[in-house]
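User: Quick sanity check before I run a bigger batch. Here is a single chain. Can you write out its predicted 3D structure?
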Amino acid sequence: MQLTEMEVFHIGEQLRSESVAIAKFATAAQQSTEPRLQQLYSRAAERHRGHYETILRQMQTLSGQRQF
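Assistant: Done. Predicted structure follows.
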């Protein structure tokens, strides 16, 4: 399946959004002094990391290992 340039662009934007979410939640976990919040933020960062990795794997499969 060939992706259009617009589809590749939007998926790239989604990857960037997931990356920003990972960074924000990881930073919040590091800066929090409340253990429960640290755990919540860390789990959110991991969830977004999972999203990022899933999107990236799918893109590589669909585009024949094209780099993003």
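The chain has two helices and no strands.

User: Great, the batch can go ahead then.
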